[in-house]
């Protein structure tokens, strides 16, 4: 198996976890003000099947990352992780209605350029 599969699986699981958490939490509403209400809200949220899948996804990402670390130097593999925010941005804009600004696009371009420079040289 191509060892890059481990890196890209890590990214996919990470992105899924972030997107699913944001999507589901936006449906559940804002964090309440009172301390007991906050605890109750968060406790219920943790056991929401979608949110739980986000946590499971983060756990799976950890295993994929461990597998990647057996094949790559961290200085070679870690720059790929900067692609996760780029994917979260694109998916957030397309599916979650997040704001699209020129500043975010420029930042996204710099992240991708930085990843290319780091991996190539």
From TrEMBL:
The chain crosses the membrane at residues 6-25, 46-68, 80-97, 102-119. It is a multi-pass membrane protein. It holds the Pfam family EamA. GO terms for biological process: lipid A biosynthetic process; lipopolysaccharide biosynthetic process. One of its GO terms (molecular function) is transmembrane transporter activity. Residues 35-119 form the EamA domain. It comes from the Bacteria. GO terms for cellular component: plasma membrane. Keywords: Cell inner membrane, Cell membrane, Lipid A biosynthesis, Lipid biosynthesis, Lipid metabolism, Lipopolysaccharide biosynthesis, Membrane, Transmembrane, Transmembrane helix. InterPro entries: EamA_dom, EmrE-like, Small_drug/metabolite_transptr. It is found in: Cell membrane. This is EamA family transporter. It comes from Flavobacterium silvaticum.
């Amino acid at each position: 198996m191509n060892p890059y599969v481990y890196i890209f699986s890590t990214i996919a699981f990470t992105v899924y976890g972030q997107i699913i958490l944001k999507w589901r939490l936006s449906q559940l509403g804002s964090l309440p003000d009172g301390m007991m209400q906050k605890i109750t809200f968060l406790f219920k949220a943790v056991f929401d099947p979608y949110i739980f899948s986000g946590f499971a996804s983060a756990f799976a990402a950890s295993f994929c990352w461990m597998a990647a670390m057996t094949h790559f130097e961290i200085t070679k593999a870690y720059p790929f992780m900067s692609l996760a925010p780029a994917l979260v941005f694109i998916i957030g804009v397309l599916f979650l209605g997040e704001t699209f600004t020129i500043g975010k696009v420029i930042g996204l371009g710099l992240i991708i350029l930085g990843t290319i420079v780091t991996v190539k040289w």
